[in-house]
Amino acid sequence: MTIMDRLVTASEALFDRHGFTATGMDKLTKGTGISSRTLYKHAGSKNALIARVLGERDKRFARRLEVESIDALFKALEDWVRVEGRRGCLFLRALGETGGDTPEINEAVLAHKARVAERIAVLVERDNGREDPMLVEQIIVLFEGATAAAVYRGEQAVVAARQSAAILMAGARS
Amino acid sequence: MTIMDRLVTASEALFDRHGFTATGMDKLTKGTGISSRTLYKHAGSKNALIARVLGERDKRFARRLEVESIDALFKALEDWVRVEGRRGCLFLRALGETGGDTPEINEAVLAHKARVAERIAVLVERDNGREDPMLVEQIIVLFEGATAAAVYRGEQAVVAARQSAAILMAGARS
DNA sequence: TTCAAAGTAAAACGATCATTTTACATCGTC
DNA sequence: GACGATGTAAAATGATCGTTTTACTTTGAA
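Above: the input entities. Below: the structure tokens describing the complete assembly.
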């Protein structure tokens, strides 16, 4: 395991648990076991570290979404929530904490959201045999809503999203 | 306009725009035009101010949701988003920034979410003539998803949520 | 075995954090 | 016209912020 892997993995957990701004460099050095000198040599700055954490999380999340149907997509989200916790979308949280004033973070967030939206578009077309931008938008909302509502409603929010998606997909098919 | 009104109104805008942790007391005193001495005399602490801001926002939001149908509820959300902006749910953002470690903030957030969920439950029953917990859960997810997705998809996310809700409501009616 | 690379530990940087305090101005009211 | 209440301005508190630097250790290859 490289220094960068340790750094990103442990930092992600800290950011997710305590928030980005509230997680200071001292908590990062203690939590990762990496000195601030080394941390800055590798990451450059705290914002760059955040952007990198988001980038790696995006990859990990995308791997989970390598499925063959919209229904499987929501099952995958159920799994994700079960093993990774329900603290809401870390990307939107980063955006909210920074007010959109940090370009490197903005880029990471928008790239992630674009990737998920594209994945949904592909699966909608695969399931129903044709493009359907309105339906894609609806599935995006359900996906985002499941993630956010799970914070206070629990896993049942994801189940409800999956059921809703099935109904909307079937309705668009006929 | 009382000191407290000025304080809460201006603070809410600052928190919403820049985030809670990133908005320091100096920005609050300058942004509200209220000295730190008076601020502390009225609010007690920054966390108490945050809780109060959330409480007032909850009231304002609830007033907007005084409608007669699920469809009107999503129309109301469209209006809210148009005039108040699309920076995501300020309550969930507060929760995320504090990691759930601030009891007064937790309470304000959970009270708000419980209130909205109850409103949705009432409207679902009014529209369809019977209780339907699963459908309520689905509408909650759509409502939350519209708020979150609007951050990067724009108002069309709310429109998509409204369309989805109409389909789910109609499907449950038959 | 020596040298450069890469790490830690810890101090220092100036800025900013939330909060309290000191000193002073502006009130409406008795 | 004196008084308590209520506000501002500004300094002080000690802690913590992100970042850099200094001094020292470890390590792997020439």
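Note for the figure: Chain B touches chain A through 46 residues (CB under 8 Å).
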